[in-house]
Amino acid sequence: MLEKRRSTNRHETPYMVCKMQIKIEATRPDTAEAVELLGELDTYLLHLPYPAESRHAFSIEKLLREGVAFFVLRYEGRPAACGGIKLFGSEYGEVKRMYVRPAFRGLGLGKAILDQLAAHARASKVNLLRLETGIYQTEAVGLYDKYGFQRRGPFGDYQQDPNTVYFEKAL
């Protein structure tokens, strides 16, 4: 059971997960912990059978260049998850580079990151989230389905791709 707790810092969202406190902080994607998490995500993705044209992940440099708001979640003081959001004016925010370390899955941390990204979008007067993910990332697809995202066609610069699932959720 995930229980939200109040925070006085607008860039942190403490939660209680299984009676253990977690902390989500806004950070740059080029910090040591973010680089480590993103490196693990990239290694995982490289082992999935996507062709080059189906790989859309932003590099750390592109996350910085595109102004992606990035967050790292700590569980019991250890970096456990991350995610970012790129805002497209007030039209929508695109979820980028979501990752929960395998040892921390099943604790509600993916939902906690999505909650943080949604809160960031709402604070920026954005009421729609969109994302793309791969068909082989079944845990991610399940999380997005459970969170209330609806499947849709390609958006932005994306093209129709049989290896990709596109989602959106009104906030």
Structure class: alpha+beta
Q: What is the highest CATH level, the class?
A: Alpha Beta
**Terminal Cα separation, in Å?**
22 Å
What do we call the CATH topology? Aminopeptidase
What is the oligomer described by this structure?
Answer: single chain
Task: Please state the average pLDDT score.
Answer: 92
Task: Give the biggest sheet.
Answer: 9 strands, mixed
CATH architecture: 3-Layer(aba) Sandwich
What is the assigned CATH homologous superfamily? Gcn5-related N-acetyltransferase (GNAT)
Strand content: 25-35%
Helix content range: 25-40%
Summary of the model, kept short:
This protein is an alpha+beta fold.
What does this structure look like?
The chain is of the alpha+beta class. The chain has a single domain, classed as Aminopeptidase (3-Layer(aba) Sandwich). It has four helices and nine strands. The protein has a nine-stranded mixed β-sheet with strand order 1-2-3-4-5-6-7-9-8, with helices on both faces. A hairpin with a 3-residue loop joins strand 5 (78-88) and strand 6 (92-100). The longest helix has 15 residues, at 32-46.
